[in-house]
Amino acid sequence: xxxxxxxxxxxxxxxxxxxxxxxxxxxxxxxxxxxxxxxxxxxxxxxxxxxxxxxxxxxxxxxxxxxxxxxxxxxxxxxxxxxxxxxxxxxxxxxxxxxxxxxxxxxxxxxxxxxxxxxxxxxxxxxxxxxxxxxxxxxxxxxxxxxx
Length: 148
Prior knowledge:
Layout: H1 2-20, H2 24-28, H3 38-58, H4 71-78, H5 85-104, E1 114-116, E2 124-126, H6 127-147
Antiparallel strand pairs: 1-2
């Protein structure tokens, strides 16, 4: 778990300034009406952090919490395309810093507890898997932002 925490901390440190250097025009550009803009991808990362914070906290006191994340609806409803850039990046940074702190405090005996992340009862994932997957997912989208 320590590797995942270090990876998240490094991502926040490395990308916070880089994200701030992208112009507003570049952030709101949508490659097609059905694709997210860079700004919406950052919003998606904010939403992902919020959902995973719920998962990592609730799994410590609930038996197999069921937390489903409908990413397209979340991004649409929160209208990240028109969210103030500075505040959006600050929110992304703070939520991921907070998530790292939560992960640091999860007792090792909780790493193999399960969270249901799907619409059915059979999409169970361990805390350790979710943490690792979150960091990889995050890196994927951060790289995507700079490749668009």
